[in-house]
Write a structure and sequence with these properties.
The complex is a heterodimer of chains A (373) and B (336). Chain A is of the alpha+beta class. Chain A contains 6 helices and 18 strands. The longest helix of chain A is centred in the C-terminal third of the chain and has 31 residues. The chains are: A alpha+beta (373), B alpha/beta (336). Chain A: It comes from Cryobacterium melibiosiphilum.
Chain lengths: 373, 336
């Protein structure tokens, strides 16, 4: 028998982020012929779309004097111009014009990062480009599948991305943070099951024969207008490394076979979450709520987006307060509860990715992350 | 790529030095601060030439995944400025001051197809690119040209790895490279990466421009160390400062001017940035432009030159016998 020793995760209160992976940089509709600036994993990016519709992510600093290219102009074809001295780059990040000279310095390039448009998002790869395989983009197919409808938003969160992952991997907090919408005591009282493989973690929880909380009662009545009575409720949390969590959620009339697989007497949603580290202490939290019933109703889409947005505002306030308390108490450790099993598997998978890249797992106590590699 | 090119100087130990072709040594270094070398990267290092520290750049031929071993290869040129003699004298256990791998010649992943062109010792910049393209399953052709077979480093290894993707051109075996045919046959969407002598690179740049394909798909790197003519000793004069000095064959004009106490402005010292530009006031002889800063038009006009790499020679045919007068070329310049 082999005893495999693994290091404790508890001390990494501010987790570093892997670079050899895909992160969402923007919603597809944000990427246009007007430049935007967005920082992903401490790298400022200038993001735009070429004349023929291809998305581009260049480093947001001119080769010459590092002026932000995102403040420049989109030109014809695939080109953009630095706002300071007019140096022009193409979508490969190669200088095509130096206004003050007849030739182009062969070293005049800015990094152009691999990008893929998928699941209504623009995904960017900031690590070793030779490893960038689009097949490893997380499965978020409900985002643009004909059997699903819905929409979402972006939350700028001022905390380490891992705190958002922790939040989503353990939903017992709903009873206390979201008491008026989705929270109920049965969340903490019911049993849950955790499984994992090399890149995913799944946490499943079923609550049988309970009252539907207000959010779910409304959804049930959107599909079954006369519904009253008890429900069976499920939350199946699918994590895909390093920072995507799609949660299969829903309720069905109690005892109609939902736990066994027949969800026809219920309503089903998918909470789509992908969290992009911006800095050690901030993240872009992209989310959407997709449903597989009443697909024709834009009213329900708008109501769900507003409703979930209100729920997530409660999370945002808690995460900010938590990050502030973490930074104010540098000498105190995290302790873990049994309910943290899913979140701790997440941390372990991310730490393995960081170790494989030869980068530190902790982002330290203050300041920017170390990006030594 | 400025952010990735902040130099981190460190000690490195020579762990191996072997001849891999006539006058070419493969030197494997163990850096104190290992960092993986991307394709197209180089290291800077300090040589010691007659007691003086001089910086040189060498492409990384290959490295281990974790960067604990970095291989370069050095041609001992007959007209070396002294750096290659120093490098060839290194023994296992010797130490050097080097930088981490620096990147001025990045390989872009995702082009529809690639042509890699290596001329002579220029193969050192290309070996790692070819290996990466092979492992990515990319569509690529590797073209390796040289004057003779015994001067071709890594030829057996490249043949074994790249098979039919490798095309070899050897002057003295009658299979010399036709630049016109090469460029004409390149797919219009392909990217061509090249490293080699300046005559070869100038010819490819001209053919590429004439073909009016995307100019940025032609990628090259030059360390400013080859010219159209063999280097000769010449005389440089700066009338405003009352300076006249000799530029030995093994020294650049910029170095000679600095030696003579002229305060010079410069940056790249490899003929790319144009900061070391000087005005040509008078010339006895011809200019050997070795930079990539000036356009062909500007080089023909010869009103200004990059003194970090370009030189004066006695005659434009490159033959001393054709010189209009005896003695070395004389270049009179104005400096900023």
């Amino acid at each position: 028998m082999t005893i495999i020793q693994t290091t404790s995760s508890t001390t990494n209160k501010v987790l570093n982020y892997p670079l050899n992976t895909w992160y969402v940089a923007a919603w597809d509709h944000e990427v246009t012929r007007t430049l935007i600036s967005r920082t992903v994993a401490d790298k400022p990016l200038a993001i735009y779309r070429t004349e023929d519709g291809r998305p581009v992510a260049l480093a947001d600093a001119c080769w010459h004097r590092l002026a932000p290219l995102s403040q420049g102009k989109v030109l014809t074809r695939d080109e953009i111009q630095c706002p300071y001295h007019g140096i022009v780059y193409n979508s490969a990040g190669r200088c095509v014009s130096m206004p003050a000279q007849e030739t182009i310095n062969p070293s005049a390039t800015v990094p152009s990062y691999p990008v893929v448009e998928r699941h209504r998002f623009l995904w960017v790869w900031l690590g070793d480009a030779t490893l960038a395989n689009p097949d490893t983009i997380p499965d978020m197919h409900q985002m643009d599948h004909p059997e699903w409808a819905g929409d979402g938003l972006t939350i700028p969160v001022t905390c380490n991305y891992q705190l958002v992952l922790d939040n989503l991997m353990d939903l017992t907090h709903e009873e206390f943070v979201h008491g008026s919408s989705i929270g109920q005591a049965e969340l903490s009282e019911s049993d849950f099951e955790v499984t994992h493989d090399d890149t995913t973690v799944t946490v499943s929880r079923w609550m049988h024969n309970i009252d539907a909380p207000p959010f779910w009662l409304k959804n049930m009545r959107d599909k079954f207008p006369d519904f009253t009575g008890k429900v069976d409720r499920w939350q199946i949390i699918h994590f895909e490394a390093p920072s995507t969590i799609c949660i299969d959620v829903g309720v069905a009339k109690a005892g109609t076979g939902a736990p066994e697989g027949d969800r026809s007497q219920g309503v089903n949603g998918y909470v789509m979450n992908t969290i992009t580290p911006e800095t050690a202490r901030s993240a872009h939290y992209f989310w959407a709520f997709m449903r597989n019933y009443r697909l024709e109703s834009q009213l329900i889409t708008s109501q769900l987006r507003a409703g979930v947005s209100g729920v997530f505002k409660e999370d945002e306030d808690m995460l900010l307060a938590q990050q502030t308390a973490i930074d104010a108490n540098p000498d105190y450790e995290f302790y873990n509860l049994n309910i943290d099993a899913g979140g701790l598997w997440v941390r372990r998978l991310i730490e393995r990715m960081l170790e494989a890249e030869g980068r530190p797992v902790s982002a330290g106590r203050a300041g920017r992350l170390s990006t030594a590699n | 790529m400025a952010a990735t090119n902040i130099e981190v100087w460190q000690r490195a130990t020579v762990v191996e030095s072997v001849l891999v072709a006539a006058n070419i040594r493969r030197i494997v270094l163990a850096p104190a601060l290992p960092k993986r070398a991307e394709p197209g990267s180089h290291i800077d290092l300090y040589t010691t030439i007659t007691g003086e520290r001089q910086k040189r750049s060498y492409s990384v031929v290959d490295s281990t995944e974790d960067g604990t071993r970095v291989a370069i290869s050095v041609l001992q040129a007959p007209l070396s400025r002294g750096g290659s003699i120093f490098m060839h004298g290194l023994q296992p256990g010797d130490t050097l001051e080097i930088t981490q791998p620096l990147q001025n010649f990045p390989l872009r992943v995702g082009a529809p197809s690639y042509v890699l062109l290596a001329g002579g010792i220029g193969v050192t910049a290309i070996v790692n690119m070819a290996r990466v393209l092979k492992s990515l399953g990319a569509s690529y052709t590797l073209v390796y040209a040289a004057r003779s077979r015994e001067r071709m480093a890594y030829l057996p290894e490249l043949l074994a790895l790249h098979g039919d993707n490798l095309r070899v051109h050897i002057d003295d075996e009658g299979s010399e490279l036709s630049v016109a045919d090469l460029v004409a046959g390149v797919d219009p969407a392909a990217e061509l990466y090249m490293c080699g002598p300046i005559r070869l690179m100038d010819a490819v740049r001209r053919a590429w421009r004439d073909r009016e394909v995307n100019e940025t798909n032609l990628r090259f790197e030059t360390f400013g160390n080859s010219g159209w003519y063999d280097p000769e000793e010449f005389i440089v004069r700066v009338p405003r400062l009352g300076v006249e000095t000799r530029v030995p064959a093994g020294r650049s004009m910029l170095e000679a001017l600095e030696d003579a106490g002229v305060e010079m402005m410069f940056d790249c010292r490899k003929g790319e940035c144009g900061l070391c530009e000087v005005k040509v006031l008078a010339l006895e002889g011809a200019i050997d432009h070795r930079d990539v800063f000036y356009s062909e038009r500007q080089q023909h006009a010869a009103e200004k030159i990059c003194c970090c790499v370009s030189r004066a020679v006695t005659s434009a045919t490159g033959l001393q016998a054709d010189a209009a007068r005896g003695g070395p070329a004389i270049l009179t310049i104005g400096v900023s």
